[in-house]
């Protein structure tokens, strides 16, 4: 679309740097950006502070992936800063879409830190031609037709994506908090999903991932509330009986090997966190990149 890197300053503002390592845009293979927005949050707002918290912990946990023997500081990750705030959601959605378009057109992989889950819509929309599917790790389906009077928000973004891209495979892993109508929609539209209580069936998990990804590159979206709130209390909509951190890192390590077209980690809410949630969010990004670099 003729988008150029020189346009990025119109959409972003910089602060703390992810992983504590400065990398120039031209040399980067991955571009991190934050979306500090939570105006459609329905229970515990505060994930607008998520990008800053994840950056802080990314610079203070070990950069080495002990699983892969890979030092994340060598991965050439540029931090572009945060999307400049707009009150109206449609304007923010368009900004995120344009930033991802620019990053992708430069041959780099975008990594979004949220912020609420609504913006996965923008990321995937901009990467749809490069993504074979979308893989979501989430406690919720986010398939409501509308929620609290809104047809577009953090609880409905995936339904809007399915409507926009009906032929793109979708898989939701770790789901456990949903309305029966959402599960019916998932079944009616061929969405693959595994409930949290079924995630120990590794063979089934791998089969679904391989079926969804095919021979392409997935887009990966991690809502941190997929993890049990006993491990990660810093979320807006906690649901008991979630996954443990090792299960999630195992999953993103598998997915990273498919060289994802893009990644997001969203809904980190430091107002309810003891640091564990932000630290795990940073580790999820580290391990996904480490797996992609190993491939």
TrEMBL record:
Q: What EC designation does it have?
A: 3.5.3.11
Q: Please indicate if the UniProt record lists Metal-binding as a keyword.
A: yes
Q: Which InterPro entries match?
A: Agmatinase-rel, Ureohydrolase, Ureohydrolase_dom_sf, Ureohydrolase_Mn_BS
Against Pfam families, the record matches this protein to: Arginase
* Cofactor binding, note field: Binds 2 manganese ions per subunit.
Q: Which GO terms describe its molecular function?
A: agmatinase activity; metal ion binding
Binding annotation for Mn(2+): 117, 138, 140, 142, 223, 225
Work out whether the entry's keyword set contains DNA repair. Answer: no
* Record key words, sorted: Hydrolase, Manganese, Metal-binding
- Going by the entry's taxonomy, the superkingdom of the source organism is recorded as Archaea
Which BP terms from GO are recorded?
A: putrescine biosynthetic process from arginine, via agmatine
What PROSITE patterns does the entry give? ARGINASE_1 (PS01053), ARGINASE_2 (PS51409)
Cofactor or coenzyme needed: Mn(2+)
Q: What EC class does the entry list?
A: hydrolase
Q: Which family is annotated?
A: Belongs to the arginase family. Agmatinase subfamily.
Q: What protein name is recorded for this chain?
A: Agmatinase
